[in-house]
Amino acid sequence: MNRKDACSRLSVCTGDITRLEVDAVVNAANNSLLGGGGVDGAIHKAAGPELLDLARTLGGCPTGEARVTPGFRLPARWIIHTVGPVWRGGTQGEPELLRRAYRNSLQLALDKGVRTIAFPAISTGVYGYPKVPAARIAVESALEVAAQFERILFCTYSERDEAVYRQVIEELCT
Ligand code: AR6
C-alpha cells in the first residue's frame, strides 16, 4: 500500500475515547494496570469493576509493552492497555519506549483481528511527553501497519491536541 492510501486510513477527532464504537480502544495505563487518572481512570469507570478484577490477575505491564482485556461495558470489544514512558527530558530512551508502546498495541490488535482502533495521546498527559514529537511517533507507527486496518483513529481530548495531530499527519502524508 502506498503512503497516500495508508494515510487515508487515519482519522483524528476530539472527544471521550470511552464512547467510541471501534473494535479496540487503547488505554494509556501505568505499570500496575490497576487504574489511575486521565484516560485510564475514564476507561476503568466506563468499563466497570470487572476490568479491575481482571487486571489484578495480569501482573502488571512493563513500559513499552501492551496487554489486552475485554471492553466489558464499553462499546469497544477490546481494551489494549499499554504503558508509555514518563518524560525525563528525552535522553532516557523515551522515544523508543513510546514507539514500542504504539507498535506492541497495534500488533496485539492485529492478533485479535481488530479492524478499527482508537488511540489516546499516550504519555502526553500526566507523563509529560511533549505533544508534537509524541504525535509524530503515533502517526509513524500507525502508517507502518495501516494497510492491515480499516481505520486507526487518534482520539484527542482538546481541539488544540487535535490540531497537533492534523499538522503531523499533513507533514508525514504530503
Ligand atoms: N478520552 C481521550 N483522551 C483522554 C481522556 C478521554 N476520556 N481523558 C484524558 N485524555 P493521561 P499518560 C487525554 O494523563 O500521560 C494515569 O493516571 C489527555 O488529555 O491520561 O500516558 C495512568 O494510570 C492526554 O492528552 O496519560 C498513568 O499513571 C492523554 O489522554 C498515567 O496517567 C494522555 O494523558 C499515564 O499518563
UniProtKB/TrEMBL annotation:
Matching SMART domains: A1pp
A Pfam family the protein falls into: Macro
Segments forming domain Macro: 1-173
Coiled coil: none
Highest rank taxon of the organism: Bacteria
Alphabetized NCBIfam families for the sequence: PRK00431.1-6
Protein name per the record: O-acetyl-ADP-ribose deacetylase
Top-level taxonomy: Bacteria, Pseudomonadati, Pseudomonadota, Gammaproteobacteria, Chromatiales
